[in-house]
Structure formats: C-alpha cells, structure tokens
Design goal:
Keywords: Signal. This protein has about 160 residues and is of the alpha+beta class. Helix content is about 15%, strand content about 45%. Strand 4 and strand 5 form a beta hairpin.
C-alpha cells in the first residue's frame, strides 16, 4: 500500500497547493522537520512528501526498517516502489550525529519513473521512535544547500 501511495504522491499535480510550510512533525517518528516556506507538503500514514517550488525536487520522508548501510541501494530502490530504478551510489555512505540523532547520508544517480536520469540523495535517520528514511529525487544541484539544511533541521519533537 505504501509503495502505491508514494507513486501517487510523487505526481506533481497532487502537491500543487501548499499543505504545510515551516516546521512539520512526522507523526510516526515524532521528528520535527523544518521546510522552506515556499515548499508544499502532504502526509498520509508514514509517508510525507515535500516538494520544492516548480516541482523540480521532491523529498520523501518515510518510516523504514533499514537499520544499516549494508545494501543501501537495493533497500532504497525497494522502499521507493519503482519510482527510482537503476540506482547507484556516487558517494560512500557517511554517518554523523545531528541534533542527537544518527544520520547516514549518501548520494547517487538513477532513472526516475518518467525515464529520465535523476540525482538522488538520502538520509537514514535513527534514534527516534522509528527510523526515518529521507530520499530526495530531482534536480539537486540548485537546491543542494537547501536539502542539507532540511536534513540538519531534523530533530526530536520539543
């Protein structure tokens, strides 16, 4: 069911009207995430999709059972339910502590659902009620600093 939901939510038209801006809480993990005011977001169950202006970039926040970086590419491809194919790493996973949480970051390229080559970036966040996987897909280059600010904003609810 979640994979079907991710497929539906990644269609740009469904997120055209902003539902949230600023601080939002991912209900299933209890984590607070700061999104830029110009972004839109919607949450259904354990999946939250945030989209940048112009729908050129989407961040998918979802509960995950991934606990290690053993086969991260296969795990992320499975979690994305066909929205990302032929994924490969362009950087080795790097773990660091951010706001009392452990975040493992990696970057790569793959084929998006529309057949185009796309960049992807991820953060596996552990230390909350449940692990959170954040996968960013789209044109990352102009928004890379913003994406990393969003990762840095992820914190336990205060």
């Amino acid at each position: 069911m979640r994979r079907f939901l991710v497929s539906l939510l990644l269609m740009p038209g469904l997120l055209a009207a902003p539902a949230f801006a600023g601080d939002i809480v991912h209900r299933e993990t209890g984590l607070t995430i700061a999104l830029p005011e110009s972004w839109s977001a919607a949450q259904d169950g354990d999946v939250l999709i945030a989209t940048g202006p112009g729908a050129q970039l989407s961040m998918v926040f979802m509960v995950t059972d991934i606990r290690s970086t053993g086969d991260l590419v296969a795990d992320v491809t499975r979690e994305m339910g066909g929205q990302l194919r032929d994924a490969r790493l362009t950087s080795e996973p790097e773990a660091r502590r951010v706001n009392t949480l452990m975040q493992t970051h990696a970057e790569g390229v793959g084929t998006c659902s529309d057949g185009t080559t796309c960049d992807w970036d991820l953060a596996l966040v552990s230390g909350a009620r449940r692990n959170l996987l954040v996968v960013t897909v789209g044109d990352l280059t102009p928004e890379e600093a913003t994406v990393h600010e969003v990762y840095a904003s992820i914190r336990t609810r205060m």
